[in-house]
Amino acid sequence: ASRSFSQLSSQSQRPSFGIAFDIDGVVLLGNTPIGGSNKALKRLYQHSGDLRIPYIFLTNGGGFRESKRATELSKLLGVNILPCQVVQGHSPFKQLFNRFENEFIVAVGKGEPAAVMADYGFKNVLSIDEYASYFDGIDPLAQYKKWNIKHAASENRTFKEMAPTICSQRVQAAFIVSDSVDWSRDIQVLCDILRTGGLPGRETGHQPHLYFANDDLKYQATFPSERLGMGAFRIALESIFNRIHPNPLEYTSFGKPNPLVFQNAELALKQLVLSLCPNAHVVNHATSESHHFRTLYMIGDNPSVDIKGARQAGRPWFSILTRTGVFKGKENSSEFPADLVVDTVEEAVEYILRKES
Ligand code: G3P
Ligand code: MG
User: Fold this and answer.
1) Atom of ligand 1 nearest to the CA of 57
2) Which residues line ligand 1 (CB under 6 A)?
3) CATH, domain 17-89+257-356, list 3.40.50.1000, 2.60.40.10, 3.40.50.450, 3.20.20.70
4) Atom of ligand 1 lying closest to residue 22 CA
5) What does 150-195 look like in DSSP terms, one character per residue?
6) pTM
7) CATH architecture of the domain with residue range 92-253
8) Which residue from 59, 131, 295, 338 could staple onto 23, CB 3.0 to 4.6 Å apart?
9) Ligand 1 pocket, mutate which of 216, 258, 261, 304 (most atoms under 8 A from CB)
10) Complex ipTM, two decimals?
11) What are the structural domain ranges in the chain?
12) Ligand whose nearest atom lies closest to the CA of 86
């Protein structure tokens, strides 16, 4: 890479701190930058546009490939963000690629969930939109849904020829990549998949695997009070499934506050340092293991997600809570107190740069 940490790093010294920014409620509300985030991020670059301070975005959100999200964030925030600086709720799904590479899987959520999974290497994936369109009558409410555009391909011959194959192919796993757009259809179809062993409309069978990108009960968007997140969808699905099925729902949730996410974030920051260091050619993967950050700052708005996660992860994490999102209190959060509480992300960056100078 031509870009480098030209000031902070030298032969002997690589950056000793890094920053992880939460997105919703810290950097953006919907698609609008908040809390002076544009200004704050610009301070992490040289005048030349080279990165000066290693940072990543660590969001529980998602729905688009990391490369696409990086382009979108670059436009919104006015700095050049690399795909490797975007860690989303669903990013850990790529670690399951070996297990499901050729298995038939279904991807759920807003945006382009199937494209996300295909980008991670999964070869046999359909979005739940497309999958459901192969089953006549699977959603009896579809006709009342004004937004429900018939699947573009549903009238063509290939689609009709494909339907029997798709409907008889066993779904091995369902991945909730991003927030469900149509809870009623998705809960119905997921219950069908999960209670039948992956063959909707058939007899019961062993529950296929189920993965959620995060377990956020709520998050901050443009509306004044918090919105229901993927954790709320999980509760709805789980409550219904457990009423209609003898065995309780089995699932795995990723996203913050899962400790794995903070380990991955540390790794992503180390790799960023190595890929952009001017002396990267003299370091190898062994030294990537040995590169230690003295401090990693997590700037978040949700005490039970961002702050709890950073606290659980322990050193070198240092948690900073902003008041621009889920947390709106005057003092600190009583349940998951942060190491520092500030009004905005701009103040948080100001504090970090002062402390590290
Ligand atoms: O749907 C997104 C939400 O659950 C949280 O996003 O950026 O605050 O981690 P973020
Ligand atoms: Mg947030």
Assistant:
1) 7
2) 22-25, 59-61, 179, 214, 216, 219, 229
3) 3.40.50.1000
4) 7
5) PPTTTTSHHHHHHHHHHHHSPP-EEEE-S--S-HHHHHHHHHHHHH
6) 0.93
7) 3-Layer(aba) Sandwich (3.40)
8) 59
9) 216
10) 0.98
11) 17-89+257-356, 92-253
12) 1
